[in-house]
Amino acid sequence: MPGMERSAGRLDRRQNPRHPISSIFDGKELPITGTSNQKIRGRLHDISTGGICLMTNRPVKVSGLIRGSFVLSGAPVGVPSLMRVCWVQRHSKGARYRVGMQFLL
Q1: pTM
Q2: Cα dist from 100 to 9, 34, 84, 91, 103, whole Å
Q3: Phi then psi for 52, rounded to 5 degrees?
Q4: DSSP three-state, residue 52
Q5: Complete domains list, the chain, with CATH
Q6: Which of 6, 27, 101, 102 qualifies as a FRET site for 65, CA 20 to 30 Å off?
Q7: What DSSP character marks residue 31?
Q8: Would you call 81 helix, strand, or coil by DSSP?
Q9: pLDDT by residue for the chain (105 residues), tens digit each?
């Protein structure tokens, strides 16, 4: 099946190819049920037409909404984005987290 490759014993459900990127992401969790909108800052790990993978120092809520921006190499302005958190994975080294987010707009 396309996009269903095995990776480290897991089924990979990605539908779009990933491209490595090194950029800073700045954003905020959007309050859905009156919770505070905490700031999110991290480094992009990869990007696709469907979303991004972000490395950050704190976890975020799965299914949460994030509004933020990042700069693509050579671009003079940031790319605004609205995303949904699809998954969060604690990194094996220290208090770091990989966060998979899907573009909504």
Answers
A1: 0.80
A2: 19, 24, 9, 13, 10
A3: -135, 160
A4: strand
A5: 20-103 (2.40.10.220)
A6: 6
A7: P
A8: strand
A9: 344 343 444 455 667 898 999 999 999 999 876 666 789 999 999 999 999 999 999 889 999 999 999 998 888 899 999 999 999 999 887 789 999 999 998
